[in-house]
Write a structure and sequence with these properties.
The chain has 5 helices and 7 strands, in the order αββββαββαβαα. The protein is an alpha+beta fold. The protein has a 7-stranded antiparallel sheet with strand order 2-1-5-6-7-4-3.
Length: 156
C-alpha cells in the first residue's frame, strides 16, 4: 500500500496539470504558502527552482536547514486527488552542472529569465489528502464523532 501511495503521489507530482504548493515557516513560525510549478521528482529527491534569491521562501528554506525544520508540499491533481509531502530541505544548489541544467531549462521557459537556485529535498513522508481518503480514515479512527444530523432518524 505504501509503495502504491508513493507511486501515485510521484505520478501526481509529475503531471503537468497538477497544482503544487510549497509551505514554509517564517522566523515567527507563521506559514508561508506559495505555488511552485517547478516542483518535481529527480532521482530519489524532489526539487524546485527558486527564482529570486531574496524571496521569503528562499529565506525560510535557509532557516529550515539551519534549524533542521521540515517543510510541506501539497500537490492537487486535475481530478482533485491531493497528496501532502513532508520534506527535509537538503541544500540549495547555486552553481555547477545541476544548476546549469535547470537554469537553461528555466531560461527557455521564461523567455531568458534564469533562476537563483535549485532547492533539493529528501522525502520524509507522503500522505493522501484526498477528501474521500480523509473521510474514510477519520470514520475508522473516530466512528462516534458524527454530527447530529448524520445520526438523527429522518422523520416521515
Amino acid at each position: 500500500m505504501a509503495d502504491q501511495l508513493r507511486e501515485d503521489a510521484l505520478a501526481a507530482l509529475s503531471d503537468q496539470g497538477s497544482f503544487k504548493i510549497l509551505a514554509t515557516l517564517d522566523e515567527n513560525g507563521a506559514p508561508h504558502l506559495t505555488p511552485k510549478g517547478s516542483l518535481r521528482v529527480e532521482g530519489d529527491h524532489l526539487l524546485h527552482w527558486e527564482i529570486l534569491e531574496s524571496s521569503k521562501t528562499n529565506r525560510n528554506l535557509t532557516r529550515s536547514i539551519w534549524f533542521d525544520k521540515q517543510v510541506s508540499a501539497l500537490v492537487i491533481t486535475p481530478d482533485r486527488r491531493a497528496f501532502r509531502f513532508e520534506l527535509k530541505p537538503i541544500r540549495n544548489v547555486i552553481n555547477g552542472k545541476l544548476f546549469t541544467k535547470h537554469y537553461e531549462e528555466a531560461a527557455a521557459k521564461f523567455n531568458g529569465r534564469g533562476i537563483a537556485g535549485v532547492w533539493i529535498y529528501e522525502i520524509v513522508s507522503i500522505a493522501d489528502q484526498s477528501a474521500k481518503t480523509r473521510i474514510a480514515e477519520e470514520a475508522a479512527l473516530h466512528p462516534y464523532f458524527k454530527h447530529l444530523d448524520q445520526i438523527a432518524k429522518k422523520e416521515q
